Amino acid sequence: MSSQELLVNSEKGYVPASERIPPIALPYVSERAKKTLDIVERFVEEECIPADPIFMQQLGEGVQARFSAHPPILEELKAKASKLGLWNMFLPKGHFKEGAGFSNLEYGLMAEYLGKSRIASEACNCSAPDTGNMEVLAKYGTEAQKRRWLDPLLRGEIRSAFLMTEPQVASSDATNIEMSIVRQGDEWVLNGQKWWSSGAGDPRCQIYIVMGKSDPTNASAYAQQSVILVPANTPGITIHRMLSVMGYDDAPHGHGHISFENVRVPAANIVLGPGRGFEVIQGRLGPGRIHHAMRSIGAAERALEWFLARMNDPRKKPFGQLLSAHGIMLDRVARSRIDIDAARLSVLNAAVKMDLVGAKKALKEIAEVKVLVPATALRVIDAAIQAYGGAGVSQETPLAYMYALGRTMRIVDGPDEVHCLQLGRNENKRGAALKARIEAQLKKTDSLFEAKGLKKIDPMALNRSTGKAKL
Amino acid sequence: MSSQELLVNSEKGYVPASERIPPIALPYVSERAKKTLDIVERFVEEECIPADPIFMQQLGEGVQARFSAHPPILEELKAKASKLGLWNMFLPKGHFKEGAGFSNLEYGLMAEYLGKSRIASEACNCSAPDTGNMEVLAKYGTEAQKRRWLDPLLRGEIRSAFLMTEPQVASSDATNIEMSIVRQGDEWVLNGQKWWSSGAGDPRCQIYIVMGKSDPTNASAYAQQSVILVPANTPGITIHRMLSVMGYDDAPHGHGHISFENVRVPAANIVLGPGRGFEVIQGRLGPGRIHHAMRSIGAAERALEWFLARMNDPRKKPFGQLLSAHGIMLDRVARSRIDIDAARLSVLNAAVKMDLVGAKKALKEIAEVKVLVPATALRVIDAAIQAYGGAGVSQETPLAYMYALGRTMRIVDGPDEVHCLQLGRNENKRGAALKARIEAQLKKTDSLFEAKGLKKIDPMALNRSTGKAKL
Amino acid sequence: MSSQELLVNSEKGYVPASERIPPIALPYVSERAKKTLDIVERFVEEECIPADPIFMQQLGEGVQARFSAHPPILEELKAKASKLGLWNMFLPKGHFKEGAGFSNLEYGLMAEYLGKSRIASEACNCSAPDTGNMEVLAKYGTEAQKRRWLDPLLRGEIRSAFLMTEPQVASSDATNIEMSIVRQGDEWVLNGQKWWSSGAGDPRCQIYIVMGKSDPTNASAYAQQSVILVPANTPGITIHRMLSVMGYDDAPHGHGHISFENVRVPAANIVLGPGRGFEVIQGRLGPGRIHHAMRSIGAAERALEWFLARMNDPRKKPFGQLLSAHGIMLDRVARSRIDIDAARLSVLNAAVKMDLVGAKKALKEIAEVKVLVPATALRVIDAAIQAYGGAGVSQETPLAYMYALGRTMRIVDGPDEVHCLQLGRNENKRGAALKARIEAQLKKTDSLFEAKGLKKIDPMALNRSTGKAKL
Amino acid sequence: MSSQELLVNSEKGYVPASERIPPIALPYVSERAKKTLDIVERFVEEECIPADPIFMQQLGEGVQARFSAHPPILEELKAKASKLGLWNMFLPKGHFKEGAGFSNLEYGLMAEYLGKSRIASEACNCSAPDTGNMEVLAKYGTEAQKRRWLDPLLRGEIRSAFLMTEPQVASSDATNIEMSIVRQGDEWVLNGQKWWSSGAGDPRCQIYIVMGKSDPTNASAYAQQSVILVPANTPGITIHRMLSVMGYDDAPHGHGHISFENVRVPAANIVLGPGRGFEVIQGRLGPGRIHHAMRSIGAAERALEWFLARMNDPRKKPFGQLLSAHGIMLDRVARSRIDIDAARLSVLNAAVKMDLVGAKKALKEIAEVKVLVPATALRVIDAAIQAYGGAGVSQETPLAYMYALGRTMRIVDGPDEVHCLQLGRNENKRGAALKARIEAQLKKTDSLFEAKGLKKIDPMALNRSTGKAKL
Q: Pfam families this protein is in (chains A, B, C, D) (predicted)?
């Protein structure tokens, strides 16, 4: 690394990322992954974070400019990342020959650091929704599709979007998706609208992966849905506007509100086959949620770092004392530390499970972190904002934007409540067996009383009885 | 196992404990530990939990009776446990030849199940404060002390107490401890009082490990304190009363308020040597906190099991629906699941760290779980209580007692706030380096602006300026 | 007041209760009520609180003793209270000639102080469930019933219980109540069981007001239920046991689990008439919830007082500083103050509304405080417990018992969740109108755009459109 | 009102604001205020809210445009408001002849409705910081100052800013303010920088009220500070940039970062006199905090209205049911209702106290609402956002902006923590007296034991004593 070497040479007491891996995870981390992890950390801290404001400035001002921009700094970082071997680390080993050969756990550790910078994920070609889209294409794409879309995505030349959510329905329940996909001869014709089409704002976005209803009368609500590939420049597509996130536009990536009017694509563009939409999206979701979660952990860590920096700012002495002398601040730091560490372990455990038995069997663990991590990150970031006062909500710190991003994480891929409902129902399946177990235990207690010749008396029994009753 | 075989043969879909170990912990768990774990689970669920009410009944009524009781059921269970090989599992392998040969992580997994029953820990000779006291004796005791106290403790024949907290000072800061220990000839003479002397109520309690001030003028507040062995029947000792815990007396174990008036013990009874009290107690605390934490996890799991059982009770249908049809109940179940799982991983990681590098280097992780776990368990238990309504706060369920026990865990071994203060200060040590890092990053950003010939303009700059200022 | 005059003469800066009434409530408080309020405060602080431990000691030990006790100190205090004019203040003026002539708001202010002592409410003949039962008898009783039961209750000679909750059903939905009430000739015959029969433990309890099903096939679930008067000594009644509350027995009052086996009472004992049970209990609930809530406010205030006392205990200096020098303690005090004050205003406002338009039209306000106040009190008490460490959970302070009592308040008269469900549904009735309003506002916005010749463009619109769509 | 009459004629079951005043507040509200309140409500709902998007559109795009804009819709609304008599309602009666003659409580009720719209406050000439600045000028200004600045402000012709916070110090402690104010001949010369200069972005802003240090060596940190009037176009002033609030620019009002370089104003521009800065700002803060708080209550109410509308949107049916059929949503609505109502009562009580005894004596109540209300509003808004999913964080609803605004309220006028510290310290002043009271109560208990010939025995005493100790 040619740069200032902020961490290794300058920072007193610096301990590299690989030595801060929670010990319980160590047996699952290869030496190669540790080495890469340390490179990732330094790349993020020394190259990406300092470049974030350059990226912001190169975006320019105004909607048109910002959503046409392709900041040169990004390509420079991509070149550096590629040279450092930091490229496509997200593609899990064993499944994809195109990836860097890491497990989900190993990449998860790296994703934490990527999450500290606005641009680091893309610099390593590991940014959503491309990651999930590449997985879909790699898993389910035809050879032709792979050549046309996957290869340039893997090289970081184009970008992609995933179009699922629709404004007019409760998309948190994906069976509600309405986008019409009708077969006409050799083509599929799409009509409808989508929003929260993240990434669609980028001028380099060339391919949409679209979910819609191809078989609206199928008895199975699931079999009604298909996933289909739609080139971004297909006639009939209109981007109406970009949605803001707590005031931020996320340019050039963005979150599009898009309409489809008689949009036609070749029959071959359907993924896996008609009616297999749920199969496609379910295969896509597990790793993505782990990535989001670990990046959120990284954001929380960075917020805590800024918090700690503020606490030691000698210019900021309310009531004559450094913030670090105020017990309530130390308490918040401690609770942030505790919560982040617990959340990280949850994600790492989910990643390990996914590595060991696949995403389907790790659904519970994945759902848990989907709910736990954003809430945790938001608490930490909010505490850091509060420590900064006005600076915390403004452009002066990265905190407000991190909060906005974190807030959407409670909604992206389904709101917390949907996941909790599912988790609760799943847990509730144990209910009948547990009820039976408790009853068996109570019955055994009864027989113990009998066996020991003890009369079972509630210690609070009141011998004022004048009669007897069957309870 | 001779009993009803509640779990294995009767329970539909039963999955043994060893198969529910979080996958991330698996590499640290031996096959032997897994087998023992499954035996522990069955012993607790099939033998101990059903026997809990027998134990309660055998205690009798009234303070005098309850604190003289030695319920026969306990000795029966101890015999069973011993036969099953479930004895002294807490003594960590490598350190003590007397133990069962498990790591802290392995025993932690078992302790979770022990924590589901009121009497299981003692049935396996793994109950506090004997565990910590045995560690002290094994580590620091002379051979004579070991023969006299450690051996019968290891065999479960006697019990012990640890006397640290004092009513008249803020004992959360142990340098405040005032119990006077004065050398007179061949003896040490103790004067003062202690409370929260847990275990002192048991008629089988024969030895007190006492902290006190032997060198009150020493410049180091730490070196003022010593730990000394005091037989429970030494003249001058008075148990004034037993402290209740949210209304519970925890008989016969109990929490004593005890005074010492010219209590004399031989000079040799000092542990490690005068002024080494802090060394002794610090060595004692790490594993104990892990044990407490894992038992609390077990309590939380049991509360959740009762919660789930209630949700499926067909007699309990507010507004015509099973509780399990009420979304808010499912939501609480889900959040309980999430929180317990994250808390467990935190404890397991702390245990692994303790196994790998020792308790001293795992202080941060241990403090984290000390704070996190009781708060988590209390939330879960409270939710279960609420689901049960009146039954939840009464003797009808194990929940109210579990809540009381859990509540004290936020105080035992120092209140949350003390641990958070310590954690916060520890974390704050990174503050200066992080401040420097952030400043270096900002500086690098400046040089990037310069290098690229960009003028660094805040995107929100307002060119209404009429002058110029040095900011 | 003959006693030490703890407050007026000894306490520096003491401000009497009447001068601490929230100013917004003042117009509703008569001068006479203010005078009485100050007497109540002094009676509680100077007489009742110091007598609480006497009461506890006079109860004795053991279930049989405690539930047969009638501590003499109570009758002494009743005599004092009566002399001071502090008697039956709960009976709202205008409705009952027998009361002291105060409004619900005025009595509410007094109830706060009663709630600070374990025995003050009963000392003033203002304790539940007698208060609600007296209201029922005064409102709906026949003259004969009034003479037999109401008069001695008003004089504080006997006590009463209200038997609604049943162990085998979800009683939070009162239509589930199953106690069978069958007409046989001139009698009603009762069969079934009740629990949480609060007050039934007292040996002076002579009358049960019982809810049960007299018309099980009535199409209206509400009309199935009746309320009936049952003398406590009627044959066929068995008190099986007293329920504990987080380990406390609440003796001699207690919470009974009672069975009815062919319990016969005269036909005339039905209240208001068969099928009018809901009418009776609904008339009873409003004031009782206000009383509970204000007493809980008093408990929270007392907890905060103990908290503040601890913060200034010179013997308790963790890390060399008084607790009051620790910012996190001051923060908790502040938040306790804020929350208590807001909760009190909510109760006072509900009381005013009840005074102005009756309990039925104040259901929303009453439900709000039913949920808000216990949660608030528990937070405050829990913070005080934590400040005290071990002393906080033990018999050394009044805090643990206050916590236990407060915890049941989240369940008594229906769990929070039931009230929130009802409140939520009630609020949701506005949903359609609000939806219409918002749509009308959006439509008006459209017409404003048109009127002003403005094209309605989303500021984030992206003019990359190649087509057009109907959104 | 000429418009659509959204509320009165169209909305089923509409109840005007005056009839929804909490009953406890009614005695303090004049008939005239009730009438005005209803007009305010309709003006906001029927005129301002529909015009909010017009205002947004008329602002245009880009920093320069937005901070030069003066949307015509605002002047139209000001004309309407003025005609309706809705002008300067904030100036409290009794103190200022220029106002509309309402009490702080009465205006508080109105401010709630103003807080529902982005532009309603300014439309009624009741927007911060002009309100506080007008109070300062009216209270402390010379006649000449009043003519030059107060009169046009009262007429809504110009705007003003209050410059206190500085980026380089912990401004939450105002004694830290560093802006240098030096006397040179007939002038004061200012040097330094300010930020969070709210309102400074508006092109109509003509006057800054600036706090700074005129006597840096004064022994009293308070007497060092002065407040001075600085015309916005004075040479030497530079607006460097506008600060964003969670991504929003709040144009044209804005929050400026401004530098002063040798800015000269006449000697007469000092307010009240040198060294009296704290006197000036303290007089200014009370009413402003009430206004902020009540507007936040209005924002929370509007968020709840949107929440309820969403719950009844027939197009949004996750899992086949309206959101309003999901218990967890109803629960959140209920808790929102409870919390808003309690918070409103707190503000109204603080306003009443301020009306009765002045802001200085109402500091506690004002500080309480300063902390309570924003936290409450944020919880409600956050719940509404979550119900909306993606729409909630985007420009599709008013919720995200309301959240951003609410978040800053936890910082504006000092962060929560500073107010809690102050509140806690203030409350702690009672500590010594309370400690003495509790000790006196315990002593009285002792003498009661003695008087009754009772031996004071802890019910948990264990008579195993072999000796005696002085406890």
A: Acyl-CoA_dh_1, Acyl-CoA_dh_M, Acyl-CoA_dh_N
